[in-house]
Amino acid sequence: MKRIAMAALAALALTTMSGIASADTIKVGVVGPFSGPFALQGKNFKAGIDAYMTLNGNTVGDDTIEILYRDVPQPDPAQSRALAQELVVKEGVQYLTGFYFTPDAMAVTPLLEQANVPLVIMNAATSAIVTKSPLVVRTSFTTWQTSTPIAKVAYDRGVSKIISVVSDYGPGVDAENAFKTAFEAAGGTVVEAIRMPLSTNDFSPIMQRIKDSGAQAVFAFLPSGPTTLGFVKAYNQNGLKQAGIQFFAPGDLTQESDLPALGDTAEGILTTFHYAVSHDSPENKTFVEAAQKAIGNPAELSFPAVGAYDAMHVIYKMIEATGGEQDAQKAVDAVKGLAWQSPRGPVEIDPETRHITQNIYLREVGKNEDGTYYNKEIQTFEKQGDPGLAAAK
Ligand code: PHB
């Protein structure tokens, strides 16, 4: 017995010394809203992860990938940081990912270097997050990236006076600045800029202010979820649509999973975004099939799933490049400049910013023959980087 144990120990030492990687379990910690009002967004994270692992397997080299989920239902930086810490210290995760809300991602960036863990952001969209640590990579979008093109679209369609309405936190402030910068550069005027508390759910007073502003149109950003559904409904119920006040926004406002509840309220709304479920490509067909199967109800599929799917691609590449060893800087360096065909179209991790360069699509909410609604891509703004990071320089 003793001799066998000694031999096993010696073999283990030899493997370690010669640097030959042994088969391990690599843990990936996912933080997101898996319960509460934003649970559907978290469910989309999981659908994207499941789709990726169904199509690509749950091993990289000799290593088996294990996913650990932690729930932060609403923006809560303290809870997010505590759960990330628990994942790193108690569970020994080698990668952190997920993060729907900006404040939750921001709270975790100070932990990364000491923990030797990369953070691959599946959603949080404030430009500055990637500047908070060299170990952050993002596969979603920024609201600078998605709100800049819609300003040009609004101006080109004859709008010269617009009112801006955003949620008062990181991605909302970024959206307001992005829109104003591009709209004024085109020649238009933002007549009023309203910032609403994130917790706002009665939008009638805001709708009255929009009507009173004399603007021809409204630009709006809120984080996708019950918030966006309520806002677009209020736009209709308060008579703004009938009054001819047009609606422009990034695609968060017409996510596919909201369209059944919005019905003809959303029809014709123009948004710009990095992804539409209807995107016509072989990669997207494969993705949508797998992700709809994973989520169960196909109508629930929305953009956080594609951010999650691509985050898994990045994490698999990181694991490949490090041979499964825990070396966060090496892992991040390995994906700088990584380019691939995402379900959304061609993408690349910008080697300087570690944010994703991608096409942004102009989409119009249209009606299928069966009476359901979808985001129809009608124009492409190719290879968009993040104007927010450029503006901050
Ligand atoms: C964010 O908090 O960064 C965020 C959340 C939901 C969105 C966009 C941005 O739809």
From TrEMBL:
<keyword id="KW-0813">Transport</keyword>
<protein>
    <submittedName>
        <fullName>Branched-chain amino acid ABC transporter substrate-binding protein</fullName>
    </submittedName>
</protein>
<dbReference type="InterPro" id="IPR028081">
    <property type="entry name" value="Leu-bd"/>
</dbReference>
<keyword id="KW-0029">Amino-acid transport</keyword>
<feature type="signal peptide">
    <location>
        <begin position="1"/>
        <end position="23"/>
    </location>
</feature>
<feature type="domain" description="Leucine-binding protein">
    <location>
        <begin position="25"/>
        <end position="368"/>
    </location>
</feature>
<dbReference type="InterPro" id="IPR028082">
    <property type="entry name" value="Peripla_BP_I"/>
</dbReference>
<dbReference type="Pfam" id="PF13458">
    <property type="entry name" value="Peripla_BP_6"/>
</dbReference>
<dbReference type="InterPro" id="IPR051010">
    <property type="entry name" value="BCAA_transport"/>
</dbReference>
<dbReference type="GO" id="GO:0006865">
    <property type="term" value="P:amino acid transport"/>
</dbReference>
<dbReference type="InterPro" id="IPR000709">
    <property type="entry name" value="Leu_Ile_Val-bd"/>
</dbReference>
<comment type="similarity">
    <text>Belongs to the leucine-binding protein family.</text>
</comment>
<keyword id="KW-0732">Signal</keyword>
